[in-house]
Amino acid sequence: MAKPILANKKICFVGAGAMAEAILRGVIDKGIAHADHVFVVNRHNQNRLQELRRTYGVQIHSDKKVQERFIADADIVLLAMKPKDVEEALGQIKASVHKPQLIISVIAGLSIQSMLQYLESDLAIARTMPNTSSTIGLGATGISFSAQVTEDQRSMTMAIFEAIGIAEVVEEPLLEVVTGVSGSGPAYVYYFIEQLVEAAVEGGLSLETAKKLAVQTVLGAASMVQETGEEPAVLRKKVTSPNGTTQAALEKMDELGFPNAVKQAVHRSSERARELGALMEIRPKEKG
Ligand SMILES: NC(=O)C1=CN([C@@H]2O[C@H](COP(=O)(O)OP(=O)(O)OC[C@H]3O[C@@H](n4cnc5c(N)ncnc54)[C@H](OP(=O)(O)O)[C@@H]3O)[C@@H](O)[C@H]2O)C=CC1
Ligand SMILES: O=C(O)[C@@H]1CCC=N1
What we know:
This protein is of the alpha/beta class. The protein is 55% helix and 12% strand. The protein has 13 helices and seven strands. Helix 5 (86-93) links the parallel strand 3 (76-79) and strand 4. Helix 8 packs across helix 13. It is elongated, with a radius of gyration of 21 Å. The mean pLDDT is 95. Residues 14-20, 41-45, 48, 80-83, 85, 88-89, 92, 106-108, 129-132, 183 line the site of NADPH dihydro-nicotinamide-adenine-dinucleotide phosphate. Keywords: Amino-acid biosynthesis, Cytoplasm, NADP, Oxidoreductase, Proline biosynthesis. Belongs to the pyrroline-5-carboxylate reductase family.
């Protein structure tokens, strides 16, 4: 059953890739948006639009004029293209977006100020940083709002992202930190699982058994933190017998710089988001 706040609202996704699919699948599966109120447009790939239509029942069209109407008629326009495509895409939709629509962006690094400049309008903007776990309702999203966003629009944004996981409102400059932690974060965990599996196979386990054990271990550890409310460091100590196997393994991780590698990776992702943001800024000389 759809929550009333979004029941009659039209959402148009501009961009039809991994992140758009994660969100649209989440909101449709959770019943907070009806598939016949979800519109998806992209630049070229018609097969991709057909695939999304077949899988989720969303509305698509190959005609650019009809796509422009999808955007103009939407209550919420959700921007989900890569940073390199922002200039072209926002230039194309500029004439179609208007007040009092809500623009939601998931684009890493793209500031509210840059969006307002590209769209040349005083629009209501929710800048977000979700992650792909939104697909299964376990996303983690950071959100900042522009001054123009109304209370209803805030509630709609929270409803969307809380339907597909947890959502935290943060000051806009902290969205880069969110990007480093939870936007890119699933990839770090997959990378960790890959190494666990590889080591298990090197040790002689079958690939199938290795995967089962590694995935259950990560799932169990994350759930323990969530369900017991205990600090990760306290839970870690409970696994670590003095002079036992875990202590030996953790000492090896320290020796090889694991804690520093993880922290530096998070900081580098945040820094990269800032770099992408700077690349997407409109310089004063390019205006008008
Ligand atoms: N993937 C992730 O884990 C996360 C991604 N993000 C952000 O989400 C955004 C999208 O990432 P992701 O989904 O991975 O990217 P994808 O490459 O999977 O998808 C990008 C989509 O944008 C479309 N597109 C490109 N140019 C235009 C245009 N001019 N007009 C309309 N659509 C266009 C592409 O369509 P076509 O094929 O026709 O070119 C494609 O469907 C990025 O900005 C990223 O920073 C945020 C959090 C997590
Ligand atoms: O890798 C990226 O740039 C995007 C943003 C966060 C996750 N994926």
